[in-house]
Amino acid sequence: MQKQTHQSIDKTAENRYWQNQFRNENYYDAGRQYEDYEPAYRAAIEGYGRYRDDHPSFDQAEPSLRADYERMEDSARLGWDKARGAAKAAWHRLEHAMPGDADRDGR
Q1: What is the pLDDT of residues 39-84, one digit of tens each?
Q2: Which residue of 5, 40, 43, 90 is most buried, as measured by CB atoms within 10 A?
Q3: Which residues, including other chains, have CB under 8 Å from residue 41's CB and lie 6 or more apart?
Q4: Which alpha helices (DSSP H) does the chain contain, by range?
Q5: Domain coordinates of the chain in residue numbers?
Q6: Residue 89: which residues within 8 A CB-CB, separation 6 or more?
Q7: Residue 45: left if φ>0, alpha if ψ -120 to 50, beta else—which one?
Q8: In whole angstroms, what is the distance from residue 68 CA to residue 35 CA?
Q9: Do residues 91 and 44 touch, judged by C-beta distance below 8 A?
């Protein structure tokens, strides 16, 4: 039997959280809508489950997350430079929620 290394991510709950929180984040640009940031959140949430074992920190996973983000049709609203903060925030939120500190950054 294979050991499960991560708890399941509730994507619906994460989506709901960011819909309510995005305007309070330091990367938020006035006038932007949730839909502008949603692809970045999605890339990080899906990527966290996919890349966490091999790339325990956001910085290590960033090239893969960026590539995933840029492949999304709805990512055209924001370039990675503007979306990066949202992806990083979503990654760190999941990191806080999961047990352990694999990247030893105190989160």
Answers
A1: 999 999 999 999 988 888 999 999 999 999 999 988 888 999 999 9
A2: 40
A3: 14, 15, 18, 86, 87, 90
A4: 11-21, 34-51, 58-71, 80-97
A5: 11-23+33-97
A6: 25, 27, 44
A7: alpha
A8: 17
A9: yes
